[in-house]
Amino acid sequence: MRRGLHTPKLLQLSGVSPAALLQRLGIPLVADSAGVGQHLLEHRCILMHVRIREGSMNQEYQGWRLAKNLLRYLGAHSGPMTFAAHELCGLVKTRPELARPDAELGIGLYLVAVKNDKVVIDSAPGMTWVGYVTQPDSEGSVQITSRDPQAALDIDVNYLHTAHDQRHAADLIRTMRRMLSQPALKPYVVEEVAPGPAYQSDAELVEAYLKFGNTAYHVAGTCRMGSDAASVVDPQLRVRGVQGLRVIDTSVMPTLISGNTNGPAMAMAMRAAELIRGPQTSA
User: Fold this and answer.
1) Residues with a known catalytic role
2) DSSP code for 72
3) Which domains does the chain have, with CATH numbers?
4) Concatenated DSSP letters of 8-33
5) Handedness of CA 242, 246, 250, 253 (dihedral sign)
6) CB–CB of 69/61 below 8 Å?
């Protein structure tokens, strides 16, 4: 996520930016690039908290069990501290008529909450479901607010702005609830703590998605790559209007991928290294 926000910040501070922004802030123009900081795309997660009767790992991260498991991890590299954040991940269709999955789910056998800006483990058994719409089309923006590099950015993520995103968000929550009601899981479920049964209509579910959601740290598009003149970088990742400068991070992705951005970012970096080195001849 940092690169998706800080790469356009660096370009804008360096004079590669929409000209009007630089003129307003008194920064010399190097290249008038209207797309820098625009076209911001991001996965927003919805967190569903569910109390369950058994099978939760909550107790393993509290009190004497936490100390025991820390020692177990340090001494034998085993136990709950070696578990992934999500023990189960999958891509799902929120409606059967869709041609391909439109959401990703991650399920962890713990229930956490944020209290006083701190993450705490719930004392009762529970699990957390995290889901996001994989191909949102709401676009936001990011831009500098001052010549001072330490100044806060003006970030407008613009979550769920389009009817497409609102429908898929509501459908995703309903899909998670439908999965929890299946015979294999229903006997373990006590209640949905959040968003909770008060949210039912499309409008209420969109509200819940915003209220109980968070960023997925998958920001892309703010330095869009393309073959058109309006793109910030060309297909070789070279910044248009500047010599000898490339951008190599998720900010150049013209669209979000249908999943996590970490692996694709590493693959992109490997390809960029090949482009920078150029054709290699064998001895």
Assistant:
1) 218
2) H
3) 2-41+218-275 (3.50.50.60), 44-56+85-138+163-210 (3.30.410.40)
4) HHHHHHTTEE-HHHHHHHTPPPSEE-
5) positive
6) yes
Confidence bin at 84 (pLDDT 50/70/90): confident
Higher pLDDT, 146 or 119: 146
Helix, strand, or coil (residue 45): strand
CB 253 within 8 A of CB 271: no
pLDDT above 90: percentage of residues in the chain? 88
pTM of the model: 0.89
**Per-residue pLDDT reduced to its tens digit, 121-167:** 888 899 999 999 999 999 999 999 999 999 999 999 999 999 999 99
The neighbouring-strand residues paired with 155 are 142
Q: Residue 72 and residue 270: Cα distance in Å, rounded?
A: 37
Q: Which helix (H) or strand (E) holds 49?
A: strand 44-52
CB 40, CB 223: distance < 8 Å = no
